[in-house]
Structure formats: structure tokens, C-alpha cells
């Protein structure tokens, strides 16, 4: 079979083009200008021998199997990594839960001890207020005694 190339456009006319041109009457067909230098001929591509095709198919399937095995192995390894990360995260959360339970227990103990100490703290506050009032009375008494002393010295000088 020959493939014809159009001299002006460079397009090829294969078997389907040849069939299409055969159905058009000769008067309507445009015959390309025959320039033997511009027309190239090509040989029909020959298919490789059956043994070559079989070997190429085997090689392709072998390489595809290797590729798919690699992809599946990578995916499997990713899932194993995720599984290990989930296990570690779960253990970490269990540790954090234990820590939170201990903190809660300690907080309850501290609140209970504070409640037990509250009456004593109230007594301390009352004593502090009384001491402040006593201190003010002492300052007033000191100021008054200084005035009396000043008056006594004044009267003594006379």
C-alpha cells in the first residue's frame, strides 16, 4: 500500500482518503499536479513478529506488576505508619487522661483542706481587724498622752 502526500499541503492520503477519492467522479476530482520530486512514497509499517509481541507484552505486564506492587507496598506502609501514629496518640491521650484525673483529685483535696482551714482563716481575719483597731487606739492613746505631757510640762513651768 502506498501513502500519497499532497504536493502543496504536505498532507498524506492514506487508504481512507483513497477510498473517498475513488467514490468521487473523475470530473469532480482535483488531480494534484504530478511532480515526481515532491511525491514521497512510504512503505506500510510491518507489525513485529508474534514472538516479539508476546515478549513485549510479557515485559510490559512484568513492569506493570512491579509498578503496581510498589504502589501497593507504599500505600500499605502509609497505612502501617498511620496505625502506629494512632496507637501512639491513643497512648498519649491515656497518659493525659491519667494526669487530668490526678490533677482533679489533687484539686478536690486542696479544696477540702481549704474548706477545713476556712474557720481558722476567718479567725485570723477577725484578729487582724482587732489588731488594726487596737493599733489605732494605741496611736490615739499615744497622741493623747503626748498632749497631756505637753500640758503638764507647760503647767510645771509656770
Q: Residue-averaged pLDDT, rounded?
A: 82
- How would you sum up the major sheet? 2 strands, antiparallel
β-strand percent reads under 5%
Cα end-to-end separation: 156 Å
- Secondary-structure-based class equals mainly alpha
How would you sum up this structure, described in words?
The chain has 158 residues and is mainly alpha-helical. The chain is 74% helix and 3% strand. The protein is built from two helices and two strands. It has helices at 15-23, 50-157; strands at residues 4-5, 12-13. The model is unreliable at 1-8 and 13-27 (pLDDT under 50).
Write a brief caption for the model.
Mean pLDDT is 82; it is low at 1-8 and 13-27.
Topology:
Elements lengths: L3 E2 L6 E2 L1 H9 L26 H108 L1
Antiparallel strand pairs: 1-2
Relevant terms:
single chain, 158 residues, mainly alpha, two-stranded antiparallel sheet, 2 helices, 74% helix, 3% strand
